[in-house]
Amino acid sequence: MNHFSGNLQILRKANGNLSQEALADKLTVSRQTISKWESGAAYPEVDKLVALAEFFHVSLDQLLLKDLNKAPEAYSPVEIVKLNRFRMAQYVVISGEPEDDSIAHMQKWAKQNGLEGATMIGCDVPMLTIEQKTVYGLRGYLSAVVLPDSFTAKCQGVRESWQDTAKYARITVRDPFRAPFDLIPGAYKTIQKYIEDKAIRHGTPEGQLSCFEHVYTKDGTEHMDIYIMVDMLTPGGETITL
Questions:
Q1: Which end of the chain has the smaller Cβ count within 10 Å, N or C?
Q2: Whose CA is closest to 227, among 131, 68, 96, 86?
Q3: CB crowding 217-231: b at 16 or more within 10 Å, else e
Q4: Domain of residue 117, residue span
Q5: pTM score > 0.90 for this model?
């Protein structure tokens, strides 16, 4: 059964409640064309189907055949949150596959300091030259453990710092590692589209994290919250603590 018309409406609304006009501009068609696709009165040509699948980061099978109204959605709506100031211990690895080494180091450090179960966050770091990236295939990754305010480390091997109170655009990815090379980049693009559509200003003060990820388990399923910093004057923002 073809579920295209309903899926198009679901995907458009899940991506920052994107308007028909905005989607039409992205595909260089009229708003009336989008409306006809969603009502089932017309059907896109193959090149437009491919463009839609790429734009929403889904496969053609998902776009055409899967009932997305019944399936658990991979992404939550993007929301603005105000994140309270927090202290963290961090460790950066630069290698071909830095995530595992960086995370393992911080997990070991947390255990040595009696912080098992503490919140961990991570992000890519840009402190590499073009040669390191393109010639040697190196990347940088930062893993960090969120610390209690009064915590005193028993062992070294990390760098401690504070992250000031800031506002972030946040999205939650459900079961992100079932298709990590699609779902995680797609989540970042979804936030960026939300920021662009809402004309939200964003920038990062020196020494602060411009973005980061938090992986946790909820109801037996892994989830990933992705945060991208936005201007403190951005309207809204529930106050939260990591």
A1: N
A2: 86
A3: eeeeeebbbbbbbbe
A4: 87-162
A5: no
Q: Is 169 helix (H, G, I), strand (E, B) or coil?
A: strand
93 and 150, same structural domain?
Answer: yes
Across the range 136-141, mean pLDDT stands at 87
- Phi, psi (5° rounding) for residue 68? -70, -15
Q: Are residues 185 and 209 in the same domain?
A: yes
CATH of the domain at 11: 1.10.260.40
The candidate with the shortest Cα–Cα distance to 60, out of 3, 132, 119, is 3
Q: Tokens representing 84?
A: 């309270």
| 30 — pLDDT class (breaks 50, 70, 90) | very high
What pLDDT, on a 0 to 100 scale, did the predictor assign at position 71? 47
Q: Is residue 73 part of a domain?
A: no
| C-beta separation of 167 from 79 below 8 A | no
**Does 79 fall in a domain?**
no
pLDDT of residue 1: 59
Does residue 212 belong to any structural domain of this protein? yes
Domain count, the chain: 3
